[in-house]
Design goal:
The protein is mainly alpha-helical and about 500 residues long. Helices cover about 55% and strands about 5% of the residues. A three-stranded antiparallel beta sheet has the order 4-6-7. It has a two-stranded parallel ribbon with strand order 1-2. Strand 8 and strand 9 form a beta hairpin. Helix 9 (about 195-230) packs antiparallel against helix 13, helix 9 runs parallel beside helix 14 and helix 15 (about 375-390) packs antiparallel against helix 16.
């Protein structure tokens, strides 16, 4: 069944996820009324001979010069010089989420855009059409100019696009999809590119993935503690209430539900290593940080990123900086730090689990026949490589400002880099989590005790049903991905 998204209400991250496939975008009468009113107001402003950036002027540092007199030529003037992107094409799910978010921003009725532009975006999203958008070229300051410029050109039938996953000349992809090339004037073209929709879409998709991994590690930490026979007092409600951090209190409560019924074996040390004992504090701090990112993404999904904005009721055209992606840049960098530390925790827990000196006497590398078999040895090596890949790329982008555009853009947020980087990291985190999940499934096979908590038993049963034990050795790349998916699906149903 095709998902329906109504542009009258703020988007949700689930809508962005759904946009990877064809969706029905509803452009209702209230949306159409707002967009039409702003467009009518723009016509009045033009008749009043008022200066409007991008309508009567050049762009960026060339704002002091007159633009082209013909509105269609002004669209060419907007988009041609932005054809400077480099690198591989962005993933289809990111591009389609970006264009859904761009449609939502335009639907607020503050951009002065032609109604047919919103209709064209809705029509495109009902097909498998995806503009070919280069990854590199945006500083996220005057919006994601270069990548959104490539998307706009593809909608006009210029450049390249994908249809059903096949890369084609954009004009051919449009024809095969049953879409018409999109006519634009200067304001339409500028409104399509002058926003941070790529930055926000990538941040939102990354947030969704990191949240899933964060919830998964909570469950896997409980399963680890149960398989080892750890004392669950590190989750004590009074302990965490005294700590005072809301995230830790809430994470602790969720982990207590999963580990309810856990009985300590009495054979472990009084205090577990930090990778178990401090998990609610670490994951709680991550929860607090994720809530900050939640708020930034929610504001961006409901807001307008464009310049200038049109307010017909007040007879105002307001020039400013709503295309400046600093909020999402900060949020993406915070999300990157969360990703790295949650990944660190999962990797350290896997290290503990494969070590016979710390895992309660289970065989080294959880091998069913040590020496003759090697168990999780390759998986641990790969997990170490994955977490170092994440950690290496965690340098904040949001404060790396480099002046550009003849110092018109003398500060830039670089949120696009931050957002696309953390989306890459989130995908790696999913694999680190899968590595730990596979290790826990194997630990149960090679001698760990039967879980005493029903929530832990449920998690282990789900893993065991999907992933056979490693006996004998086999390539485990697919098993890591499968284990990651199983836990991600499981945590969706947990309170």
């Amino acid at each position: 069944m095709t998902t329906e998204v109504d542009l009258e209400v703020p988007l949700r991250i689930a809508d962005l996820r759904a946009a990877r496939d064809p969706i029905t975008v509803v452009v209702g009468p209230q949306v159409r009324g707002r967009v039409t009113a702003a467009r009518t107001f723009l016509s009045k402003v033009r008749g009043d001979d008022r200066a409007v950036y991008g309508v009567t002027t050049g762009f960026g540092a060339l704002v002091g010069y007159a633009g082209r007199a013909d509105p269609r030529d002004q669209a060419d003037n907007t988009l041609a010089h932005l054809g400077a992107g480099q690198g591989p094409d962005l993933d289809a799910e990111v591009v389609r989420a970006t264009l859904l978010l761009r449609a939502a921003s335009l639907a607020r009725g503050a951009s002065g855009v032609s109604p047919h532009v919103v209709d064209a975006l809705a029509a495109m999203l009902a097909t498998t059409f995806v503009p070919a958008v280069p990854r590199l070229g945006s500083v996220g300051a005057s919006g994601d100019l270069i990548p959104l410029g490539a998307a706009a050109q593809a909608l006009r039938g210029r450049g390249h696009a994908y249809l059903d996953g096949i890369r084609l000349p954009a004009a051919e992809a449009l024809e095969r999809a049953g879409l018409e090339p999109l006519p634009l004037d200067g304001r339409d073209a500028l409104a399509l590119v002058n926003g941070t929709s790529l930055t926000t879409a990538a941040t939102a998709l990354a947030l969704d993935a990191v949240r899933a991994a964060h919830r998964a590690v909570q469950v896997l930490t409980c399963l680890l503690a149960d398989l080892l026979g750890s004392d669950p007092q590190f989750l004590d409600a009074r302990l965490l209430a005294a700590y005072g951090h809301p995230g830790a209190i809430d994470v602790g409560a969720r982990m207590r539900r999963v580990s309810d019924g856990l009985v300590a074996s009495g054979t472990r040390a009084l205090q577990e290593p930090y990778s178990i004992r401090c998990a609610p504090q670490l994951l709680g701090a991550a929860e607090d940080a994720l809530r900050y990112v939640d708020a930034v993404v929610a504001a961006d999904l409901a807001g307008v990123t464009d310049n200038p904005l049109f307010f017909p009721d007040d007879d105002l055209v307001v020039h400013g900086g709503n295309f400046f992606g600093q909020p999402a840049a900060f949020a993406a960098d915070v999300l990157s730090m969360v990703t790295a530390q949650v990944g660190n925790l999962a990797e350290r827990q896997l290290d503990l689990l494969v070590d016979p000196n710390r895992n309660g006497g289970l065989p080294p590398m959880l091998a069913a026949g040590p020496g003759q078999q090697h168990g999780l040895q390759g998986v641990q090596l790969a997990a170490t490589a994955l977490i170092t890949e994440i950690r290496r790329d965690t340098m904040p982008a949001s404060m790396q400002s480099v002046p550009t555009n003849l110092h018109n853009q003398d500060v830039v947020p670089l949120g696009t880099q931050a957002a696309l980087r953390v989306l890459d990291q989130a995908r790696l985190l999913h694999l680190v989590v899968g590595s730990l999940a596979l290790g826990l499934r194997q630990a149960a096979y090679v001698g760990a005790r039967t879980p005493t908590a029903s929530g832990c038993a449920e998690a282990l049963a789900a893993l065991a049903a999907a992933v056979p034990p490693v006996d004998p050795d086999r390539p485990l790349d697919g098993d890591v991905r499968r284990a990651a998916d199983v836990i991600a699906d499981l945590v969706v149903s947990l309170p």
